[in-house]
């Protein structure tokens, strides 16, 4: 069994296998083990004595009807209802205390900036966030995948969509915000651009984007072409570095630089920046300075500003074809 470790910095590292293990623990199973006095049977399901409208199914799923929130497992409940962090939810569900490790080889990535991320409070529901993303053409399964990971949620104030970027220990370090009404874009106070919203799995190659919406759009395109998007690695850089006049002096965005240092086995980088001068020059700069990597520049098709605009055009074309 892979071990959960706490380093001398106080950071906790949780192996992906243990996160998957935590996700398999349903809320009913968790409550029977930790809070047996608060559950009672109601027909083929269960509810909480303290909140009778919160129903727990034997398969681990749950729904709190009066609050309009539900989930697939105990982790979902702890994060959505009790406002646990992703890391704390995993540890609580597994009932584990990390092993102390003094030789922390990842200490070089400890935040020394003094920034403290003010994570926006989660709303009881993700309805407006989901509606917004669906209207942008994002596939529902793609949305659910990132919501279940705790990396997308709806904020309680203003009902913004919040995209979380985490460090290698699962701790939130960046919160990218997008308004569900209007054109608001921003970041939560204390966000650190060395971290980005994304998903790292297949280590040989990584697809990078300027914004989370484009990342989700590309994952949707992958799925629509019959592939499992979960087998690809994605990273949103939350903007790009402006290329220097002498392109060889351009810098790699800190978010990408950090990931490449953590995963030196990543050999291929697929760049999906915007179809504008900034996007083109930033992509070319990466190809120039990352001489030890295979950098493939893959902008959206000509005539489309970004990946999401291209995705939305496909939806419109499909609707028009149905009309004909």
What this model shows, in words?
The chain is of the alpha+beta class. It has helices spanning 16-23, 27-34, 74-80, 86-94, 127-135, 140-148, 212-224, 254-262, 277-289, 307-323, and strands spanning 5-7, 12-13, 39-42, 45-48, 54-56, 62-64, 69-71, 99-101, 152-154, 161-166, 172-178, 185-187, 198-199, 205-209, 234-236, 268-271, 294-297. Residues 103-112 and 317-324 have low confidence and may be disordered. The radius of gyration is 21 Å and the shape is globular. The strands form four sheets. Strands 3-4-5-6-7 form a five-stranded antiparallel β-sheet, with helices on one face. A five-stranded mixed β-sheet has the order 13-15-14-16-17, sandwiched between helices. The chain contains ten helices and 17 strands.
Main traits of this protein?
disordered C terminus, alpha+beta, 324 residues, five-stranded mixed beta sheet, five-stranded antiparallel beta sheet, 17 strands, 10 helices
Number-wise, the strands total 17
**Unreliable runs, pLDDT <50, ≥5 residues?**
103-112, 317-324
| End-to-end C-alpha gap | 57 Å
Bin the strand percentage: 15-25%
Largest sheet: 5 strands, antiparallel
- In which order are the strands of the major sheet placed? 3-4-5-6-7
Structural class: alpha+beta
The shape is globular
| SSE pattern, N- to C-terminal | EEHHEEEEEHHEHHEEEEEEHEHEHEH
DSSP helix count?
Answer: 10
The pLDDT mean sits at 85
Percent of residues in helices: 25-40%
Q: What is the rounded Rg?
A: 21 Å
């Amino acid at each position: 069994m892979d071990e959960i470790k706490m380093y001398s910095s106080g950071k906790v590292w949780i192996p992906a296998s243990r996160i998957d293990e935590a996700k398999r623990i349903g809320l009913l199973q968790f409550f029977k083990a930790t809070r047996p006095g608060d559950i009672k049977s109601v027909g083929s399901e269960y509810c909480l004595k303290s909140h009778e409208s919160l129903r727990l199914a034997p398969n681990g799923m749950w729904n709190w009807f009066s609050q309009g929130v539900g989930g697939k497992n105990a982790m979902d409940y702890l994060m959505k209802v009790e406002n646990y962090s992703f890391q704390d939810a995993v540890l609580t569900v597994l009932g584990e205390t990390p092993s102390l490790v003094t030789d922390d080889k990842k200490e070089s990535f400890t935040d020394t900036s003094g920034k403290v991320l003010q994570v926006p409070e989660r709303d009881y529901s993700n309805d407006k966030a989901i509606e917004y993303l669906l209207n942008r053409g994002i596939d529902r399964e793609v949305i659910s995948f990132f919501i279940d990971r705790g990396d997308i949620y709806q904020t309680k104030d203003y009902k913004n969509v919040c995209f979380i970027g985490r460090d290698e220990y699962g701790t939130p370090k960046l919160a990218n915000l997008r308004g569900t009404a209007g054109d608001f874009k921003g970041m939560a106070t204390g966000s650190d651009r060395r971290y980005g919203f994304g998903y790292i799995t297949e280590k040989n190659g990584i697809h990078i984007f300027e914004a989370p919406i484009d990342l989700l759009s590309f994952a949707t395109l992958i799925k629509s072409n019959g592939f499992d998007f979960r087998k690809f690695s994605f990273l949103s850089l939350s903007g790009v570095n402006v290329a220097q006049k002498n392109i060889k002096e351009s810098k790699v965005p800190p978010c990408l630089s950090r990931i490449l240092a953590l995963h030196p086995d990543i050999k291929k980088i697929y760049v999906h920046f915007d179809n504008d001068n900034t996007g083109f020059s930033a992509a070319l700069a990466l190809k120039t300075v990352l001489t030890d990597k295979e950098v493939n520049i893959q902008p959206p098709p000509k005539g489309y500003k970004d990946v999401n605009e291209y995705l939305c055009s496909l939806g419109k074309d499909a609707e028009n074809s149905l009309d004909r």
